[in-house]
Design goal:
Low-confidence stretches: 1-31
Shape: elongated
Radius of gyration: 21 Å
Number of strands: 12
Oligomer: single chain
Order of helices and strands: HEEHEHEHHEEHHEHHEHEHEEHHHHE
Structural class: alpha/beta
Mean pLDDT: 90
Helix content: 25-40%
Amino acid sequence: MTFRPDRRLAMKALLGAGLLTVAGCGLQPAASLVPQVGPGAIRRVEDLPDDATITVTSKNFTEQIIQGKIALLALTAAGFDVVDLTNVPGSQPARGLMETGKADMTWEYTGTAWLTYLGHEKGIPDRTEQWEAVKEADSANGLTWLEPGPLNNTYAMAVRDEAVDELGGVKTLSDIAELPVEDRTICVEAEFNSRQDGLDPMLEAYGIPRGQPDGVPEENISLFDTGAVYTAADRGTPCNFGEVFTTDGRIDSLGLTVLEDDQRFFPSYNVAPVLKTSTLEEYPSLADVFNEVTPKLTDEKMRELNLRVDDNGEEPIDVAYDFMLDEGLVTEP
């Protein structure tokens, strides 16, 4: 079942109440209603004060907005009043809301926190070690990282499904080095082409020298915008391999195969709930709430949810609502 509130009436109500501007931070909450839900696997927290309120924030791309709505629904089922500060424009503003205490909860990626917020030059490929490192470092910022989920939104290289056999059963990044040079054709974004965890160090890690006749000659590398990289990889021209994000719904819709990062080059970007430490101390049951949700966020599930928004044009709150019902985390009120 899909929750479909009358969004025009919802917007008018919000405007009438003057709720679209958050005093002091200059940001705006998402203009949507959070539907009421009943308890499922997530139970109502006992002895919760009537005024128990949690503010949730997220960045402004599809995956993060869906995750933010999932958090709002989970907290509603647990009995909290919620404030929707999802869809914040950019990583740093969302992080700023958490660090200044204007938001209580967000979903964050371990690698992003380590490299972007905490200023380290290299990520940690091991999932657990990366999470432990950011958890320890962020405790000094008044933020607590709960257990990470299996979802790992990291970089990867993908090839069209039908080319896997054509290229001798290529399955791993190491397999690229075994191909004839003319088949080592790669499409990437300009950013990935220059990142510290991007194309050059990836090729170096796999022993494929860039710009060399026995590696990947420059003419084998093409730069495109993100969408065009997916399209080029799907066509197989001008490249067999394209840079992708592992939770992008286009991987499934276009029929792409993600190559295994068998040398574990790319940093871990596992998602985890991050809470303001003082909020978690006040409501320790929040850990139980999110421990029900996080394990269900997988790469495959996130690709499915992202595709519903990006390709089908569905609203993130509707997609989140269906996810919560389907997974038995909440029930209809």
